[in-house]
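May I ask for a single protein's sequence together with how it folds?
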Amino acid sequence: MLKLFKPAPPIDRLPDEQIDSEYKKLRLQVFLGIFIGYAAYYLIRKNFSLAMPYLIEEGFTKSELGFALSAISISYGISKFVMAIFSDRSNPRMFLPAGLILSALISLLMGVVPYFTSSVTIMFVMLFLNGWFQGMGWPPSGRVLVHWFSVSERGNKTAIWNVAHNVGGGLMAPLAVAGAAMFTGLTGNTSSGYEGVFTLPALVAIVFAFITYFLIRDTPQSVGLPPIEEYRNDYPNKEKKTFETEFSTKEILFKYVLNNKWVWAIAIANIFVYFVRYGVLDWAPTYLSEEKGFDMNKSSVAYFLYEWAGIPGTLLCGWLSDKLFKGRRGPAGFVFMLGVLIAVLVYWFNPPGNSVVDMICLIAIGFLIYGPVMLIGLQALDFVPKKAAGTAAGLTGLFGYLGGTVTANALMGVIVDASGWDAGFMLLTGSCALAALVFALTWNVRGQEVVKNH
């Protein structure tokens, strides 16, 4: 492992009278760091979806673009797992901004150099690289969450942090549209403008990477503070064990992650949740343009609303799972996925010309889908000791992206080209039902009890 990324070592503890004030200050600071940093990752993750209608005009087919789009999901799914193993043994202050800068550089190349969008193969390679660097965002964020926030507060904090998805994803669309207007003709193609879809969000992301570096710290012990469990007197077990020793990669994988049946259950649920999430989101600009008569600006508004509707939905889902269902995530996931199923059906059968109904459906799907996304990530953190949290989340991400998002990108493109949008929507509705079913299987499982049994 590069010396640059080594975990920050513990230092001598601060005087007792300084601990409370320093802990409060740094908890807010590191939380802002991972929130801003992870939101910035989403500024440059899904730009290609907004560029796709332009690229179709240039002669690419939906099957070809779906194949290219699948690259980011294939590499992200693998990277989120591989990088999580490294992240669990790295300093998130370095790890998270490094991935963000590398991802932004790939996006800049696609916007500035025409060669990098000249063929499906080249776009696939570039999106694969972007996805790989994108995998450096979630795991260090998870490491920060489990070290700075204790078990009994982690559900609420994770729900709040999780809306960074929506803040970044929602801001990407207007930034991309502004970029398209600002950078039209950047590469000599004055009739297009999709170059700016990649360029402006990437520039903004690089600025945020530096801000993130200045905000994040590794563990409380690395800045002279006690472990979070000691500070809040909130331990995950009766023995008051905190699992502060660094585990080996073998221990993380084989002792705490791969032999955990509940981690596998939520990994399978993630396949169906992610298929719906990205099957709707990634194809919304193209579907709305072809079937519902939306233009680029109107599609970007719908994209923005889909993402930002997820903010209150995620917070509500987290609250319900904590308060109403007493820490059981399965019931909340089941209820929300049934809601997604209804909204997808209305979105599908709503005839062209009723743009308000389409907007409401996208808002409803966005409001509902991000709750289950958050719950699966939260369960991954809760089901294992905190030194293995990134790897557990990485495994669920591997399943979600390889099994869910890749099929949402590539399979949807092929199916829609071959059999029309109705066939694509049949896949979406089936996935909603299967996701709800798997959540139902975890109905009575409480994450904190699973941790206690380790």
User: Anything to note?
Assistant: The mean pLDDT is 82.
